[in-house]
Amino acid sequence: MEHRTHWAIKQINFDLHSAGEQRLLELHELEELKMNAYDSASLYKARTKAWHDARISKKEFVEGQKVLLYNSRLKLFPGKLRSRWSGPFQVSKTFPYGSVEIFNDKYPPFKVNGQRLKPYYEGQLIEKPENLSLIDVSKSP
């Protein structure tokens, strides 16, 4: 039995033409799989980019608006509870393509990229704080 299988394997290997055709078919199949994977990856990239771009919010600043400036240098030596936003600054001028000129009482006017800014919202001021004692609340009927 062993002899017959060995002989059959030898016969297959001696037929070089059919072995070459088989190898060529395998190479074409591999190339097709590679192209399908490439197409799938490019489709995935395009969809991911479209999804990401749709969620980017455009920031537009007007003169006189208060903004906070992102301090990127704190990334190197971050304090655990330290805020990375400094300000508030006031917008003095806006330029095309997103650059903004801002100033503060401490700093002269300087240009920054608009991506490093976010609007500063001043909260509502409370005129007079109200004091409430817990003892008074617990005694009331």
Describe the structure.
- This protein folds into two domains: 2-54; 66-119, SH3 type barrels, CATH 2.30.30.
- Strand 2 and strand 3 (99-103) form a beta hairpin.
- It has a five-stranded antiparallel beta sheet, with no helix packed on it.
- The chain is elongated, with a radius of gyration of 35 Å.
- The chain contains three helices and five strands; from the N terminus they run H-H-E-E-E-E-E-H.
- By secondary structure, the protein is α+β, with helices and mostly antiparallel strands.
- The protein has helices at 2-14, 16-54, 134-139; strands at residues 66-70, 85-94, 99-103, 110-113, 117-119.
Name the descriptors.
5-stranded antiparallel beta sheet; SH3 type barrels; alpha+beta; 141 residues
